[in-house]
Amino acid sequence: MNRLLWILALxxxxxxxxxxxxxxxxxxxxPGQGGVAQLTEVTATITAIDASTRExxxxxxxxxxxVVTAGPEVKNFDKMKVGDAVTVQYLSALSLELAKGGGREVxxxxxxxxxxxxxxxxxxxxxxxxxxVVADVIDVNPATQTVTLRGPKRxxxxxxxxxxxxxxxxxxxxxxxxxxxxxxxxxxxxxxx
Length: 193
Known about the structure:
Structural class: mainly beta
Shape: elongated
Order of helices and strands: HEEEEEEEEEHE
Number of helices: 2
Largest sheet: 10 strands, antiparallel
Helix content: under 10%
């Protein structure tokens, strides 16, 4: 779990608007289905390493710096060098699927996982989780194109902007929603000069 905190701290440190980043987003629909995914990638350069405190200073593409403490769970700390590139990737995705007529149990399930670089390699790791919810359609409001969904923990109103998708939804149907997020971090040697 501490590895997750280190990776997330690094990702959050560079998620602000002051750092240049690449973001790619895709979205798509099919009858009774829709989905969207976004991948953000940020690369920074190691400018200083304090082995006694395990603090690593990273400089982003626009020159801003952040200091991150790599806890003891960060394997292969000694393999990092000043000048190495640290890349953080963050993926988030949501998919929705309409189940006509319902019949499934209203549930929420969550899966999580993590991985790290093998001993002796440059530091790297990834963490992710996926949450799946089955919710009942308890109301459909054509005037506002709003669908009311009751899941296992709460009830939400969702505006369905696409009129063709909205026409497919009826009270008594169910929606299967799957949310996925993952963060990966890797260290690459400095480019040869």
